[in-house]
Amino acid sequence: MRFQTELIPATLLRRYKRFLADIRLPDGREVTAHCPNPGSMMGLSKPGTRVWVEPNDDPKKKLKYGLRIVELAGAMVVVDTGVANKVVGETLRAGLIPDLIGVVHAEVKYGVNSRADFMVVQNQNRIWIEVKSVTLSRDAGLAEFPDAKTARGAKHLGELAARVAEGDRAVMLYLVSRDDCNRFAPASDIDPAYAKAEAEARAAGVDIRVHSVTITPEQVRFDTGGFA
């Protein structure tokens, strides 16, 4: 996935109210950017951190910059959670995941007031796919999810398990949106209920898989290999 507009570097001043971030641009101007991340962004919002933002000239948008990447020492982290769905969507439609090739539908209603990120129809069989963007890493090389309690995330796992019980396939796809990790685990100390729901979903037959990405200020590319 390529960003629509060339990203520019900036300095993070503060992140607040979940979806707002004050930044300093290279010319010294201080502006407020949209921060499209509902999580805690644990370890990613320290004032003075170098970030990459995407400018826009859309008159309908009040904020003219969107926070896309946080740059740490030795790591690039995509903090725009919407990027994960775009990357996975492009990858599915390009047929780059062999066992998930089929007709791809996005935002499909299922379960109880839920929408699956994707449903792939494969030889009249349905594959339900939820995507989670993983940005937390507290130990070197280890990616963790979630970075805050998420009842909604646990609900999605239950919905996927219910699809399997009805004879469909279901996939929970964790996209590790940082380039310094090669292992993954649920953050059970942050949200024990989510970790329990994931274990139950796995036992029920939900396919739990983890993929990483290659990140540059120009694009985010899906790595098909995956890791544990």
From TrEMBL:
InterPro entries reported for this sequence: SfsA, SfsA_C, SfsA_N
Recorded coiled-coil stretches: none
Pfam family, one: SfsA
Membrane-spanning intervals of the chain: none
Residue ranges annotated for the Sugar fermentation stimulation protein C-terminal domain, each copy included: 83-219
CDD domains: SfsA-like_bacterial (cd22359)
Alphabetized GO MF terms: DNA binding
Record's signal peptide: none
Domain spans labelled SfsA N-terminal OB: 13-79
Family to which the UniProt record says this protein belongs: Belongs to the SfsA family.
PANTHER family documented for this protein: SUGAR FERMENTATION STIMULATION PROTEIN A
NCBIfam families per the UniProt record, alphabetical: sfsA
UniProt protein name: Sugar fermentation stimulation protein homolog
